[in-house]
Structures are given as C-alpha cells and as structure tokens.
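DATA SHEET
Item: assembly model
Revision: 1
Owner: S.N.
Input lines:
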Amino acid sequence: MTTRRQFLKVSAAVGGGLLVGFRLGAPETAMAAEGGDDSTDAAGVFQPNAWVEMHPDGRTMLTISGSEMGQGAMTVIPMMIAEELDLPWGAFDTRFAPADEAYSNPALGAQVTGGSATVRGFYSTLREVGAATREMLMQAAANRWGVPISELRTEPGVVLHVATGRQAEYKTLVGDAAGLEPPENVFTKDRADFRIIGKPMKRLDSPQKVNGQAEFGMDVRPGNVLMASVERCPVFGGKLKSVETGKARKSANVEDVIELDHGVAVLARDWWSADQARKKLWIEWDEGELADLDDEGIDAQFREGVKKDARPARTEGRGAGALGSEENTLSATYRVPYLAHTTMEPMNATASVTDTGVTVWVPTQAPGSVQQVAAEIAGVSPEQVTVHTTFLGGGFGRRFETDFVREAVTLSKQAGRPVKVIYSRPDDVQHDFYRPAAYNELSATLGDDGMPVTWVHRIAGPSIWSRVAPGMVKDGIDPAAVEGAADHPYQIDNIAVSYANIDPGIPVGFWRSVGHSQNAYIVESFLDELARRAEIDPVEYRRRLLKADSRHIGVLERAAQMAGWGGDLPEGQAQGVALAESFGSYCAEVAQVSIENGKPRVHKVFCAIDCGIAVNPAGVERQIHSSIAYGLTAALSGQITIKNGRVQQQNFHNYPALSIDQMPEVEVSIVDSGQPPGGVGEPGLPPLAPAVVNALAVLTGKPVRSLPIKLG
Amino acid sequence: MARLTINGRSVSLEVADDMPLLWAIRDYIGLTGTKYGCGASLCGACTVHVDGKATRSCITPIASVDGSDVTTIEGLSSGGDHPVQLAWVAEDAPQCGFCQSGQIMQAAALLADNPDPSDEEIDKAMKGNLCRCGTYNQIRAAIKHAARANMAGNDGEEVSV
C-alpha cells in the first residue's frame, strides 16, 4: 500500500476532479499468458493497460483482477472502470485475469482475493485505469479534430466537442488511441458526477449461473483427463507407510493408482469410479505425532499456555495490575472451536503437466501462489505455468490454500496426462485449514458508575500467520489472532490483552473475517455481561465507552434506531446488539431472537454498516445477508471436534449449514460517511454471533460463553 | 446399461448399475450444470427432475432411472427463460452460484405442483437445498416473483397500484 501511495502523488484538485500520477502494470506481460484475442488485427486493438482492451468493431474486454467467489468481483470491478471510462454499462465482455503481478491487489501486495479487499484495494487503481483510457480516447479525438482536449467531454461511449457539435463513438477512436502514450496524470471524477458507482447494480454473472453454463473448477474437463479421488492420512501430519493396491487397480474404469507422501490417489475415467475403487485400498499409515490428540488435550494445552506463554498484545494504563477487588470484578472463560469452511463446491484442481509447462484450471483466491506451487512441483519456471481461474463455488478463505493444486500437479506429472482432483465432501471437511480454536480468559473491574476501569483479556490459540508468513508474527503476536480483541474501540483506562501462540497441530487458515470471527463474539459478549452487571442498557453502555462522533457510534445508533431498540417486541423475543470494526468498515447488528423447542431462533437481524463509499449498494446488501448466514451457521452448529488426531465430522449431517427455514429476515442500512471504501465481504460477520448470544442472555439470564450455542 | 431421455435426447449408457445419475450426467453425458456437493442427499446441489419430480441425482442409481425422462438445469428451458430462471436473475439471487442449479430445479418442481406457495411451503420444499453464501432471502423472493409471473402471465415485476 505504501508503494502505491508513493507514486499516487496527489498534485492538485482541478475542476472538481482529482489529479493523480498515473502508472500501471505492463499489459503485454499480463495478456501474453491469455494469448490475447487474435480475432482482430492486433494493430487496431487499443490495450492501454492490463484491464482494458478495446476493438475497432466496438467490442470491449475488461479483465477481472479478482476471483469471483460470490462476492461480486465480476460486477464491481467493471463498475469502477466503466465509471471513469464513461463506458455504457454492460457494453463489454469480461475475463478472469491470468496469474500476473500486474493484478496484485494494492491493499494486499499480492494477486490475492480476500481480506474484503477487492473494492478497497482497487478503488483508486481501477478508476485511474478508466480515467486514463478515457483520456486517451479524448486525445485521439482532439488530434483528429485539431481542438484542445480541454474542449472535449464524454457521454457513455462517445467523445463530444460541444462547440462544434462533433462527436465520435469510442470504437472509431480506438485505432488512433492505440498509438498514444498513456497520460502522466489523470483526473478522476467527483463523487457527485458518478453515473455507476453508488448505484445498485445487478450481478453480471447471474444469467450463466441460472442456466448451468457458469464454469466452476469442478466443471473443467480437458481432453484425456483422469479423475482422481485421494485417500489422505486421517491423522494430521501422518504419512503413507504401505498400501495394497491390487483390488483398486482391478476396479471398473480405474486407470492408475499413485502413491503420495500423505496418501494414495486412484485415477479413473470418471470420479465416482475412482472414489469407489479408493475404498478397496488396504493402507497402513504412519500416523505420526498427533495420533493421540483430542479436544481435551487441546484445551489443556491452551489452558496451560495462557498461563505460561502469553505475550502482551496491548497494554494501556496499569494493565492487569489495575484489576480491583473481587466484588467489583467479573471474570469469564470463553471458548470457540475449530471451524471448517465447507464451500458449496468442494476443493478441486485440474492440472496438465507437459514437456513445455503446466496448465492449471482452478477455483482459487491466490492465482500467484498456484503458479509458484505448480512451477516448483513440475520443475519449471513460473512463466511456464498458465493458471486459469474459474468461477469459485465459494471461497471464505479456504481457497487461499494450494493443497489441492499440489495434488493435481503431482498426479498429472506422474500420470503423464491431465488430472482432476476432486475432494469428496468428507475429504473437504476432514482436510481443511480450520478457523483456529481459541481459549480466552477475561476479567474486568467496574467503577462505581458501573463502567469498566480495567479490562484484561488473555488468549491462547494457534497462529495462522506462523505458517503462512512467519514475518507477520512480531514479538510472539499474530495480528490475526488478536484482531478485534487487542484493538477494540472501547475507552478503558487500564487494558491488558495478551496472546499465547499454542499450536496443537491441527492445520489452521483464514476463515471469513479471520480473528474477528471469534474476537468480536468474545469482546462483545463479555461487554454485555458487564452491562448487565451494571444494570445499564447495552447500547447506552457502548455509547459511553466509545469516542463521541466516531464511526462506531454512527452504526451503533443507526442499528438501534432500525431495530426500535428498547421498544415492544413479540412475546418471547428479545434483542441483542453487537458492534465490530473490521477490514476498514464499521458494522453494528441487532438480532431479534426467541427460544423455540429449546433452541435459538433468530427472527430478524438489523444491520448498519459504514463501509465508506458503497460502490455497489446491492452487492453490499447481499454480502451482509451472506455474512449473517455464514456467521449464524457457525454460531448455531459450527464445531470441528478432534479424536485420535482425526476430525470427527464428515458431511452436512454432522457439520450442518443453515437452511432456508432458519434464515432470518435481514434489514441493511448503509451509513454514508463519505470515506473511501472499506471492506464488505466480511465485516457483517463478526457482530452476528455476539448479537445473537446477547439476545439469548436477555431471555435466559445466562451468558453464552462458548460456541456453538448450547442452551440449558 | 441404462437408457434414458435427458433434456429430450435419448441416451444409452454402458456404466455400472449403481453409478449415481449425477456422475453419469457429469462424466459420461458431459453436462456439468448439475453439481456435486455432498454425495449423500444432504445439500441438494445435484437436484434434477426425474419424470418431473425433483430428485437428488447423487444417490439415484442410474439403473433406477432406466426408461425415465430426466431434465437437468441445461434442459429446464431453451434460452434460460424459464420463469424461475428469469425470476432468479430479476431478484439478483445467485452469489457464488454453485448451489443454484439445484435450487432452481427444486423451485421449478415446487411451483409446478403448487403455483402459489406460502412461506411455510417454500421452507418445506427448499430446506434441503443448502446455500453457503446465504442467498435464501433472495431465493424466497425469486420463488414468489416466479409465482406472480406464472399466475399473471407476465415477467412478475411487482406492480404498484
């Protein structure tokens, strides 16, 4: 982000627009991998940057520099380009970007889709892309008409010279524009002049997602492909010791059986035959060090770790030393479990390794990592690896990983043919990179006014960054483990938040909203415990602890207002509130809940989000619905349990997902702070679980101190 | 060997009797709109119509549909213009889209039986079709949209009077 800022030297605001330095990745590198579009004479094609390709016949191709996993990248990326390019909405085709550094997300520094960063990362870049492209078309018109560019303006798809009434459609200018240098500086529009940004736009991918034509990774089928089902060691870290493959090899349609370090792959003409034959393998495993690990052992490691290994993540005032007398101090232990992602499309990858390189077709959030991994396994250079990112049948962080790519490339290399690996649903549940479990000890001392004067929060749990990028862990603190806990916005004189990095060995990874997914639950639930002890309304309690006029207060008050907070509710229902800042956005939710047949029933969720400028308000609303459904699934039933080093859940019968009859009504309000865009794909999730449990506590009088929720 | 009609086309398949219809459709017939999500009739992503009835193809042995008329998402309409498909687009229902073939096939079967389902009837018919993106409120709206369109013989857009 810093490097980007360095060259985005904002020089001057002129004519209401923003003048910025302009420089973008080399398009020739970017497009070479895709082979460009050879249906038109390349000479006439205007390709001013890595995102836009305009043809003299009027066709425009926009490259989608983020994976489409349901969050709407394929719609919102063109919105940002088309706004500044003054491109008529919908008058373009799209393609997914190849693996190329040109498409690195400026907020993340890598070609990765995640961290709710597609809009907030690309907001400046893509508007500059559009603006620069538009300016080149205007320059082409200015040259043709012999008038200064300052006398020209555009309407969607057309350059106009108002004084003489001359106009030229973009397509008549692309040939000339192709010969021009990109401008040094470009003007981007004032918000008041937006025609597309800020308007609720329907998704561009819906038509192909309702007729079966959208191509997901699972649907790619190169010629001569073999379908693979892989038996992996059920114990994490275990290895293959020996295998008897005779019966599997003789099974119908089976073409090959290949031994891997961690498992055995059966390759067949169709996936079902491979999966059936897999059951006929006789395997002996070296189960490794985790063969005796279970939930009790994991919890014991956490409990010991929090005492011995906790390192300070945040200290304010006198920290834990300021804890007061027992009667004024409330203490609680909160626990959250490991969680699987269960994207609707199970993990899969298709690879073809040949003498000249590798082609990978894969639903991925990280095409650059795919390219690196494939190159390493195949023994070729990254430039020899072509990555085709397909539609993703859900991502939620699981598709940052490349375990399925490793298998597909390894197997294709050995089989000498294209290979598609598909995880069965049990494979997908049992071989995930899980949302970390966490153990939390909290204590708070209240002053005479009932407000906290001291807040102590000790966390023990595994660290994601220790595996993914150890450099992110500083002084023992994994920022992802403490986000939302160490940096909560409540103004309390004495604060001590600490973290013990305890890794029981279960693989952990990014899961929608990452550390916020558990920490908002813990902080916001414990805060409600304090408010109940103080007999102060939870909205009022938060208001007193927050900075006046903060964006936190803005969403808190909006959500309370939407919900009619404090008003009459149907018999047996209660409301709970929670607030969280994550991924550059501020989100408050009020959940309206009852208990039916001993189980929580969430009737309605009111959500106020301040995500800065909402580029596609329809997309924002959908992502809030989505985060609420994903968070509610976890709160009601999400739990991976470990016995003998193995995951005990297999499929949706014992790792359930929310169904339509459990989906609450959702009302979304976007608080317009006018700030630059924040994230949207995740911020709706963290406040959901605490809002629900805080409502339940009103009904039962008891806090819910572990997830998933168990009443009674 | 099984013979069946799929999307109006007769096919005969030389595959094991117990091969699930899903994998015959995907890996032998080559239609990939029908999705694998669980393999155990727990998620509904594989829903197709067998003789007009919504059926989980992942647990339906191919031999059991010998002689049947099977419709997949690709055969629901010729141009993606079945009222349910149009309603799904109008209500902006899909997100990742992976479950939507199954959702649409389930919803189309529901509306064929019950042209104006209540919320409870929608819940009952649709609760076996999981969506991890949480598009349920849009799915509900789309089903009602399609019901209005069917009954009014138009595009189902709500008319304010």
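QC remark: The mean pLDDT of chain B is 96.
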